[in-house]
Amino acid sequence: MSEAQNSTVWLTQEAYDKLAAELDHLKGEGREAVSRKIAQARSEGDLSENGGYHAAREEQGHQEARIRQLETMLRDVHIGEPSDKAKKITPGMTVTIFYDGDSDDDDTFLLGSRELMGVTDTDVEVFSPQSPLGAAVVGAEKGQTVSYSAPNGKTIEVTIVDFEPYAG
């Protein structure tokens, strides 16, 4: 898989709109609010022992990191759905797998951005294409068995039962 495919983020229009609104808020009102907090804390005197100032600066750092994250994500986004005629799994699909030798149950998840967890009305778990499981299933076909290394070092094999574009 190419790096460009790996960084592709598929979002529904609703999810895109929510993330774009968050970005606009952070770049406008959010920055203004943090600037006011910093100015207020500065006016209190000695900055070396000013907990409010340090907390506001830390908040500013987190906010700026989130702005950069959203800008990158929205720059690389594809709005809509991947092709329903796809023969291989790509980001933006709902994937059903079977854990070989572990249970009798199938597991279904969305292969996409973790950002979708907070902006879509879904109870389906979301796995990033960069996660161990996500990376293992990208490019796989129905019926194919793939493996990945769990965080504990154990190799886990799963069989692709089905996949389809996420219908959000």
Total domain count: 2
Tell me the series of helices and strands, N- to C-terminal.
HEHHEEEHEHEE
Distance from N terminus to C terminus (CA atoms, Å) equals: 25 Å
Order of strands across the main sheet: 5-4-3-7-6
Q: How confident is the prediction overall: mean pLDDT?
A: 82
The CATH class label of the largest domain is Mainly Alpha
Stretches where pLDDT is under 50 for at least 5 consecutive residues are 1-6
Structural class: alpha/beta
- Number of contiguous helices: 5
CATH fold annotation of the largest domain: Helix Hairpins
Tally of strands: 7
CATH superfamily of the largest domain: Transcription elongation factor, GreA/GreB, N-terminal domain
Helical content class: 40-55%
CATH architecture of the largest domain: Orthogonal Bundle
Rg from Cα: 21 Å
Q: What global shape is seen?
A: elongated
**How does the major sheet shape up?**
5 strands, mixed
- Tell me what portion of residues adopts beta-strand conformation: 15-25%
User: What is the subunit arrangement here?
Assistant: single chain
